[in-house]
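ok posting inputs for the phenylalanine job
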Amino acid sequence: MNDRLKTYTSNAPQSNLRGDYSRAGPGYVVDQCWDDYTAGEHALWRRLYERQIRLVPHYACREYLAILQTLDAAGKIPRFDEVSQGLRATTRWELVAVPGLIPDLVFFEHLAHRRFPVTNWLRKPEEFDYIVEPDVFHDFFGHVPLLFDPLYADYMEAYGKGGLKAAQLDSLKYLARLYWYTVEFGLMGAPEGLRVYGAGILSSGGEVVYSVENPTPRRVMFRLERLLRTDYRIDRYQDTYFVIESFKKLIDDTAPDFTPIYERIKALPLFAPDELVSGDVVVAPVPPS
Ligand code: PHE
Ligand code: CO
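and the output
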């Protein structure tokens, strides 16, 4: 199994969420409480990190790898405030600790102001391979490195602003697919070959290999309207991955006003997660090495 993640689309705090929301103020920001992590939790973090660091050099995009090396996150759960210092200086982003999933609009407000919410708790040892809610390992290892990349950093801010706008237009379900298929499960047709930039893949021991090498799923070149109409599954590896050419191209493709696009596609049928659609440009998997 993979560490399948719900996204913020289903994240209104519910009674079944496991974080401690009692001290969360407006924005749901809490103290990371770094001193409360136990030696066992730091050790579990190390094991998770060691598994992924063996895999990502073969599968992650070079933008991600270049930054991961500089983060010094191998030995223990990182301190968000230390990482934020470097982030502020590099891309003007910062991390804020949250108890877990937060409401859509709160999430968008953070992104629109270049604040990335990171869950402050770590999974249990028995969740090494599979976790339902995002934890600090997913949020940090998967999402934080690329916030240091100037283009990706701008995309995330644009996404937050786009989310606030989509909410006004009653179109969140379309925009949520964009987050899912880019930020969480995106692939890039990089110069070095097919590579991963999606955080849900980068933090997963199984899907990082599967998404690039397995012949079963579809990989199709990114087309905005096609993607916005494509349903997704949250409980297993993806059926379809969308491949971008570069972060620059992703930003350009998502820059137009989505208002008329939402209007148009509301009248059109959805595509199933595993459907091949006319106009799709299929990308071949990389043979296992
Ligand atoms: N261009 C989008 C809009 O007008 C905003 C957006 C940008 C959304 C980038 C997502 C990513 O709604
Ligand atoms: Co995520």
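notes: The pocket of cobalt (II) ion (ligand 2) is lined by residues 5, 134, 138, 142-143, 184, 199-200 (CB under 6 Å). The CA atoms of residues 32 and 39 lie 16 Å apart.
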